Amino acid sequence: MNIYLIGMIISMVVFAVIGAVISRKIRNAEDFYVAGRNAPVILIAGSLIASYSSTGMFMGDAAQCYDGAFSSIILFAGMQSAGYILGAVFFGRYLRRSKALTIPEFFGQRFDSKKMRALSAATAMVTMAVYLLSVMQGVGTLMNAVTGVDYRICIAVCIVVFTLISVMSGSRGVLITDTLMAAVFTVALIIGVLFIAKNSGGWYGALEQVAASPDTTQVLSWSGKPGVLYDTGWENIVWGLNFGVVWMSVCMVGPWQSSRYQMARDEHTIIRSSYWAAIGVFALEFLAGIGAVMVRVSVPEMEDSSHVLLWASMNLMPKLLGVLLLTGILAAGISSATTFTSLIGASVANDIFGASESESDEEDKRYIKIGQWAMILVAVVILLISIFNPPAIFVIMFLGGAVIASSWMPVAVACVFCKRLTKTGAFWGMLIGFLSCFVMKLIVGLGGFSLPAYLDSSIVGIVANIIAMVIGSALTQVTEEEKQARAAMFVMPEREKDPAEVKRTFASTRLALLIGPLFVVGMAAAWIIPYLRGTGAL
Fold first, then answer.
1. 239-242: long-range contacts, CB 8 A cutoff, minimum separation 24
2. CB count, 10 Å around CB of 526?
3. What would the mean pLDDT of 320-332 be, rounded to a whole number?
4. Rounded CA gap, 322 and 310, in Å?
5. Is the pLDDT assigned to residue 47 strictly greater than 80?
6. What digits encode the pLDDT tens for the residues 71-93?
7. What separation in angstroms does the CA of 154 have from each of 133, 145, 332, 398?
8. Cβ neighbour number for residue 448 with a 10 Å cutoff
């Protein structure tokens, strides 16, 4: 048993124990599914960061950066970070006002439509199950590569742990464990990248060496390395923009992101937490990507680039720090898994069995049990698929995000700001967007061919969604119930007008606006200047 395995086992036991302790404080369905709607900024921001920063970032995105798509990844990272703020301001606060237990319930209320609620629940559960599969395959690959333990055993152990956390503690436990996990992998990555730089010739030395080598000079360029994504720089930029639209949409309205706003103490908490989530996620993406690029100094061509940060943890860092970072990456995967599992359970209990209609403590307990059994069933299914389906972390992760962008984003934005959108338009928009993206991805994947960057399935799905919404709404009329539901969304609760809270939110906004330009200066110093020096342009 090596030290990395010991560290991972200890962390999993600690998080499971925390989940067990929190389970004692669960009193009703609202506590279990939306954390009593009383979570502070630190828990909302921490969970937003943790539920995004899974093995997809630390293994999938890091691999793309190592291979030569650094600029495209940073482009999309900037766009997706903006998604947190846009989602909080233009969707999240209206979502919280609805008092819905799940986002599908919100859609059902907004359009006075059981069909709309059922469709959004189905698309959400499919998407989260797909992304959960990606996370589990990443976690299994991580543990197997680091510890040598059989991949199937690694998958089984992790699934048991995240299922225990989700089933025992519900959303309240998920928020707390997410935030603790986010703290672990954030601190570990910051310090870890500094050691990668130190042992690769220094920050500037490592990046200048990568930029100076004819074999790797394009890794840090605006165009990226030909062949990693596409053969030309402009196609790579278009890919980055497409990918940015997808993940901006996920961070705006994705169920595993915007559902956190339903748990927030108030709308000011939503706005303030979105700033810190945007800053945190972008910083993590940049550090993971630049750290992966620096590893090229030590290993110019890695056989499996998804292992780049795993290799760095074991070879370029002090042993204890390496354990901490690998444990942090594992924690990132488990935190995402708990989020997806708990949300699927909530959707089954609420959107299929009607938990929001509960009128007694006994009914609450029954609906909690239904959600818990749904979580266990999903975990078993994911276990079986993970074992028999070979890992394809980046591809599966992108599929989950693309489906949300295509099916949910246009409808979620329009349901708030479009008076003319009808339940028929929303239903067909979501359905056509989902099917267009999913079928197109399936055909391209099975056919073994690629399309031009501008014909990405997510963009096609978004366009198809909008067209279907327009046609469906043009052929039908907005009902009185729909008008009333939309009007209710714009009634601001009195507690949101508290002058002290408004002042704090404006202070956070000013601070976030200051941090933005500092990030630009920091990237110029940490990426562009050493790249230009390495190429001799500076």
1. 239/72, 239/453, 239/456, 240/69, 240/71, 240/72, 240/73, 240/75, 240/76, 241/75, 241/76, 241/79, 242/453, 242/454, 242/456, 242/458, 242/459
2. 18
3. 88
4. 9
5. yes
6. 999 999 999 999 999 999 999 99
7. 14, 10, 15, 23
8. 6
Percent of the chain as helix, strand, coil, to the nearest 5: 85, 0, 15
User: CA distances (Å), 21 to each of 15, 70, 134, in order?
Assistant: 10, 42, 29
Main-chain dihedrals φ then ψ at residue 264, nearest 5 degrees: -70, 150
Of the candidates 511, 518, 39, the residue with the CA atom closest to the CA atom of residue 275: 511
- The arithmetic mean of pLDDT across residues 96-125, rounded, is 93
Q: Higher model confidence: residue 450 or residue 133? A: 133
Tokens of 330: 């594992």
| Residue 394 confidence (pLDDT) | 44
Residue found under tokens 């599929």: 399
CB 416 within 8 A of CB 489: yes
Phi, psi of 491 (to 5 degrees): -90, 110
**DSSP summary character for residue 296:** G
Those residues with Cβ within 8 angstroms of residue 524's Cβ, 6 or more apart along the chain or in another chain: none
Bridge partner list, 39: 264
Task: At 247, list the tokens.
Answer: 């993940």
What is the rounded average pLDDT of the residues 106-128?
Answer: 92
**292 Cα distance to chain centroid:** 20
Residue 417: count other Cβ atoms within 10 Å of its Cβ: 11
